Fold:
Amino acid sequence: MGVAERMKQKTTLSFEVFPPKTEAGMEKLRGVLEELYRWRPDWISCTYGAGGTDKGYNLELCRAMAGSGRTTPVSHYTCIHHTRQDARRDIDGYLELGVRDFLALRGDFLPGETATGGDFDHATGLIAFLRETYGDRIGIACSGVPEGHILSPDWKQDVAVLKRKQDLGADFIITQLTFDMEQFKRWLDAIRSAGIHLPVAVGVMPVLDRDKCIRHCVSMNGSAIPRPLARHISKYYNDPEGFLEHGKDYTVEQMREYISLGVNDLHIYALNRSDAVSDILLRSGLFGRPD
Structure:
């Protein structure tokens, strides 16, 4: 059963991990994955760096997850520096490893670049190519941006682009992080009103570290810091331990609110650490206890 089909049947749990830059980091991440597997995740997505960096470790991680028999790997795949020939070669390689699900993205430019440098300028072109080339042999996820893409001139245009991704063959949506729950509700209502029926996996960024929390919102995604989060940051600004401890509870409440809205999947950015993520899941009580 594919990822999208599972999401239609129940509220699923998934994680995102990223490839480390060293073999020592890889060894540590293998241990993290063993801990995450205990939560019986329906799938785990694996990123790679801007411009395709860290792609070798991405392949290694996806191979390991596919071979574990304990989850379904979903590999990120971007437009950056990829021709149609490259994409066919790469996806064929993933299929040989047992990886059949992909998050199709435009991807981040390397410093100094202003174009993808390949045959696909946008994720829509990549999605169309993958569906036309592989049909139902693969599952395709696409990104959704509840607060609007930082390069989009109009929030409604974002919804229209997402509808086009659906029409071109995407199977489910993975959202960018958002802490603004009112905006997420507006976005969810808007996409459903626009005829977008794809299952939604909502990206959950655990509130664990003050500086990283601010950076992920402001400098990386153009996301709002709503008043409850601003108060949390202010209250524990000089108390890292308090920020971490109460940030876990903040994350739990956000997860519960997402569930109440009927999202199909909680996609937790694991940040390559299992201790805090496991504690958050235990506190939430949403997915039982680990094996």
The chain has eleven helices and eight strands. The longest helix spans residues 240-260. Residues 3-284 form a domain with the TIM Barrel fold (CATH 3.20.20.220).
